[in-house]
Specification:
By secondary structure, the protein is an all-alpha fold. It is built from 5 helices and no strands.
Length: 204
């Protein structure tokens, strides 16, 4: 049960992080360059490209390479934590006048999508291993896992999209919002670390 919960929490907090960081980057682009309308489609498209690329890398490099999925998931979550924390000084430094800076800014948009996309197949694989017993067929296991993972991811993104515009940015600002993202995913990282290290009471 704990392993299933950890997988679901990792997906939920990363879904939360993905949408919050994307919106922060949209607002930051407006602040740096003074316009957003003709670029917002590109920003969303690059985030989605990161999702696709992350899923591809996860499947080909980690899953097909038979790597330790528990540790891989843990370090991807740590990547989300690290990115959310280093984003604040990056956005403070980012100059609108730097040659090619808009292209560099767009690179920042790809990273959260990449991390989210990498996490999804790994967490799904780990979760499906835990539901193999109760369900009658492999197809049922896959369908159940895909459904619940997708639901949890969208639930996290829904909460993030609501909170970032109402509470996080207006009240806490960019720095506070990034710290909230880092703290939530840090909590997920600690649980995954405890599971990986087999601390007493973590595994059932």
């Amino acid at each position: 049960r704990q392993r299933r919960f950890n997988c679901l929490l990792a997906i939920a907090t990363t879904g939360f992080a993905g949408i919050v960081l994307e919106i922060i980057l949209i607002f930051s682009f407006q602040n740096v360059y003074g316009y957003i309308y003709e670029r917002i489609g590109l920003i969303v498209a690059l985030f989605m490209m990161g999702l696709a690329l992350g899923g591809y890398l996860s499947n080909t490099v980690i899953l097909k390479g038979q790597r330790d999925c528990s540790r891989a998931l843990m370090w991807i979550v740590m990547g989300v934590v690290s990115y959310s924390l280093i984003l604040v000084p990056i956005l403070r430094w980012f100059p609108a006048t730097l040659s090619g800076s808009e292209a560099l800014f767009m690179f920042l948009v790809v990273i959260p999508g990449l991390l989210t996309g990498m996490e999804f197949p790994i967490a799904s694989k780990l979760y499906m291993e835990e539901v193999a017993g109760p369900l009658p067929t492999k197809a049922a296991e896959m369908g159940f896992t895909a459904g619940i993972m997708d639901s949890v991811d969208h639930a996290g993104a829904f909460v993030g999209a609501i909170l970032v515009g109402i509470v996080l940015l207006p009240v806490l600002g960019v720095e506070g919002a990034c710290w909230v993202v880092g703290a939530l995913n840090g909590m997920s990282f600690i649980l995954l670390l405890a599971q990986t290290m087999q601390w007493p009471g973590v595994r059932e």
